Amino acid sequence: MAEQQDVISLSLDELYSLVRKALMHHGVSDRHADAIARVITQGERDECHSHGIYRLLGCVRSVQSGKVDPRAEPTVRDVAPGVLAVDAHHGFSLLAFEMGLPMLAEKARSQGLAAMAINRCFHFSALWPEVEAIAAQGLVGLAMNPSHSWVAPAGGTRGVFGTNPIAFAWPRAAGHPFVFDFATSAIARGDIELHAREGRPIPPHWAIGPDGRPTTDARAALEGAMQTFGGHKGSALAAMVELLAGALIGDLTSMESQAFDDGAGASPCHGELVIAIDPQRFLGGGYAAGQARAEGLFAAVVEQGARLPSQRRFEARARSMRDGVRISAALYRDVLELFDT
Ligand code: NDP
Ligand code: PYC
């Protein structure tokens, strides 16, 4: 660890160990601590600050709230040839994902397409680590989940939807997969929280304040309602996530998750839908041609100077793997204070 004025430099190993130790200090089991520390380290490594080490504070708060079972052992259930369900038993979601992934991949390979419902999980993380793990097996990945009802529908003023991320990954023969992962709100709530922590203003299209008017005050935004991205289009996608990753899989919508929290301040508790598709099954002998077509599409994007989603992230990853990460001294202090309670 190296300190330089208001920034602390950590290697990825140091970061991982720090997160893991803090979680275990608060009674999180080895297996959950490993899964969480891996994903938080990946978030910081890829410079996704809203879902990096900052999330450790929320994880510990969730455990302290008494809502999460930090030692819950997920159970995997084979539901149908193309469907499985993982019950997280009110633990964090990441171990449940890891435990379900082998069966999801096996079913996708045998059926061409498979879906995994993760139920009763506390969810705080970005989704790209999950769809990237699916793409690493040569499969197309799609994942989504509700959260808390912080987001107003387009044309409304009161929260109904969660920030409801949708993530997609397409495996490529060489290099990183094509990946996008975004909230269906104008921005992740974690980003507004970071603006509020640091006293920075936000763009007016991110949220409305408690008075129902657009605001640049991050604290007012957290008390008001967030906006969807792309107006009615983001609003419809957010509703789709509530339906597919809530009603369809027998789990809570964002409004229900918020009610379940009952002011405890834990991470949202709900379900997640993860879909894997095997392009070899779909394309058979045409697999190479299908891949080539996809590469033609990506080339047409980058050739004109536009960038592919996740390119910034992959560049950040290369940098962090070489140089480690730098986090603000204020955040680092907050993390160290977790060991005092
Ligand atoms: P952003 O708006 O920052 O980015 C979303 C995506 O767009 C990324 O894949 C990003 O790639 C890509 N992108 C950004 N700018 C460009 C560009 N100019 N050209 C091409 N692609 C671009 O994300 P959000 O704030 O919406 O979400 C951040 C994270 O929060 C996500 O990882 C999401 O999973 C997580 N989240 C989790 C929730 C949960 O319930 N667990 C709820 C809501 C969000 P790149 O990264 O390379 O910039
Ligand atoms: O940043 O919106 C968010 C979020 C919700 C749950 C996890 N992240």
TrEMBL record:
Which InterPro entries does this entry report, sorted A to Z?
Answer: Mal/L-sulf/L-lact_DH-like_ah, Mal/L-sulf/L-lact_DH-like_NADP, Mal/L-sulfo/L-lacto_DH-like_sf, Malate/L-lactate_DH-like
This protein's UniProt keywords: Oxidoreductase
Q: Is Protein biosynthesis tagged as a keyword?
A: no
Q: Which GO terms describe its molecular function?
A: oxidoreductase activity
For whether the record's keyword set contains Oxidoreductase, the answer is yes
Entry similarity comment: Belongs to the LDH2/MDH2 oxidoreductase family.
Protein name (record): Oxidoreductase
Organism of origin: Paraburkholderia lacunae
